[in-house]
Amino acid sequence: MTVMTSWDLFDDLRTAQDELARTSNLYGHRLTPGQFAQQFGAGPGTQVWAPPVDIAERKDAYLVAAELPGVGLDDLEITFQDGLLTIQGERHTTHDPAAEKVHRAERRYGAFRRSITLPTHVMADAIEASAQDGVLQILVPKAPEVRAKRIPVRAVTGKAAVTGKAAVAGKAAKNGA
Prior knowledge:
This protein is an alpha+beta fold. The chain folds into two domains: 40 residues, no CATH class; 91 residues, Immunoglobulin-like (Sandwich), CATH 2.60.40. 19% of the residues lie in helices and 26% in strands. A hairpin with a 3-residue loop joins strand 1 and strand 2. The chain is elongated and about 90 Å long. The chain starts with 10 loop residues before the first helix and ends with a helix. About 8% of the residues have low confidence.
């Protein structure tokens, strides 16, 4: 008897993220994007950020949604190559630091890049993207051959109705050939 288990495409990524969060919390602090940038050589004026992304799967496509408020369409680029969907762009600051005194700045600005590994069985030429209300939606259609195929079962009487190679090979093995 063959046991089939389902495979979650993003389970390994979630596990790695959980492990990183757990490890940083063990040392009594949580790494934020700004702290990460300062630790690894980016200057204090540089803000490293990445937009939050949701990934869902339907029977016919993968759906990717990214929160990108304040990012203009001219500042956004989406590419797909070798199973890697990349969203990159830049969000520009809305205030002039020379003319304004900022009391609190919690929003992130600057360049960003998110890369998402998708299965290679997608139709790259049919990928569509749209943006509305600061949310980028990307539809990545699956190739037809990976969609589940329903196999009908026929009722028969008498001899076996399956006449493929498997049935012929089974008879030969049974007869000692």
